[in-house]
Each structure stands twice: as structure tokens, then as C-alpha cells.
Design brief:
about 15% strand, alpha+beta, globular, Arc Repressor Mutant, subunit A, 6 helices, about 160 residues, 2 domains, three-stranded antiparallel beta sheet
Length: about 160
């Protein structure tokens, strides 16, 4: 898989922020998390080269299952409280936002934020707003997110 220019620019930006923080002797986990996320985005297969599904498991975690055309299947999880935190972050956003903004606002790990964000995009709770930015699709994004989550949870794995 070949990374896109946008993905490589995100890696470069994250590494530059890490180096600046290191120079100022102020490196935090946020800088490392940004690098980890940017590198992971480069290695994830494009949407046209994978099948992606969402379920809610018995622990009420939102589960993102990915089956790439090439490679091994994998799953990532987002606990219900982390999903709610992302939904609140979308509702409280006063402007356009991206995954990093939501992760920071929700104060959760990148993987959990990415699962919630992917689900919200799939269900059109958030919509593209130029570049990597997104916006809420309606005036009630928290409610929309929770309706979609509970509809999926009630559907069950066999749905």
C-alpha cells in the first residue's frame, strides 16, 4: 500500500511538532500520539481496498472490523463512554473539526477516537467540510450519534 501525499504531510507535521516540543524540552504523550496516529493512517488500506463493518458487542463497545483485500483482518474497539465523549465533542464543536480535535476534546486514545469518528462518518452524522475537516450534519449531532449507536446495538451481531 502506498501512502497518499496528504497522509505523508500529516506524518511530517506530527514529527515536526514532536521535534519542536523536544527542542523546548516539553515533549508530552500528545506529540507521540500524533505521530502514532499519522503513521497508522499511512498503513491503513484505502476504503476501496477493504470491507469495514461496525457492531456493538456484549460489553457495549463499538467494534470496527476491517477486512482488507490483502492482509489480515483486524478489529478496534471504542467503549460506550468514549463514544459518548466523541459525540459530545462533535456537538460542542463551534467550527469545523478533524479526528485530532475530537480525540483531544474527548481525551481518549487515538484508536478509540478513530473508531467513533469512522462510525459517525459512515452514518452521516458528520460530513466532509473541506480537506481533512468535517462538520456536524445537523443541529443535533449528539442525539443523532446516540440514535445510530443504539440502533446498531439493538440490531445485534446477526443483523
Amino acid at each position: 500500500m502506498q501512502a497518499t501525499r496528504t497522509q505523508l504531510e500529516a506524518v511530517l507535521d506530527a514529527v515536526e511538532r514532536l521535534l519542536n516540543a523536544r527542542e523546548a524540552q516539553m515533549v508530552t504523550s500528545e506529540e507521540w500520539d500524533a505521530v502514532e496516529h499519522a503513521v497508522a493512517a499511512c498503513s491503513e488500506p484505502p476504503t476501496n481496498e477493504r470491507a469495514e463493518t461496525f457492531t456493538v458487542d456484549d460489553a457495549r463497545d463499538l467494534v470496527r472490523s476491517v477486512a482488507p483485500v490483502k492482509g489480515e483482518r483486524y478489529q478496534h474497539r471504542c467503549p460506550a463512554d468514549a463514544f459518548e465523549a466523541v459525540a459530545h465533542a462533535v456537538a460542542e464543536a463551534k467550527r469545523r473539526f478533524n479526528l485530532e480535535d475530537l480525540r483531544r476534546a474527548a481525551n481518549i486514545p487515538w484508536t478509540q477516537a478513530a473508531v467513533a469518528f469512522a462510525f459517525l462518518k459512515e452514518r452521516s452524522v458528520v460530513v466532509p467540510a473541506g480537506g481533512r475537516s468535517h462538520a456536524a450534519a445537523s443541529a443535533t449531532p449528539f442525539e443523532d450519534a446516540m440514535v445510530e449507536y443504539h440502533a446498531l446495538r439493538e440490531k445485534g451481531p446477526e443483523g
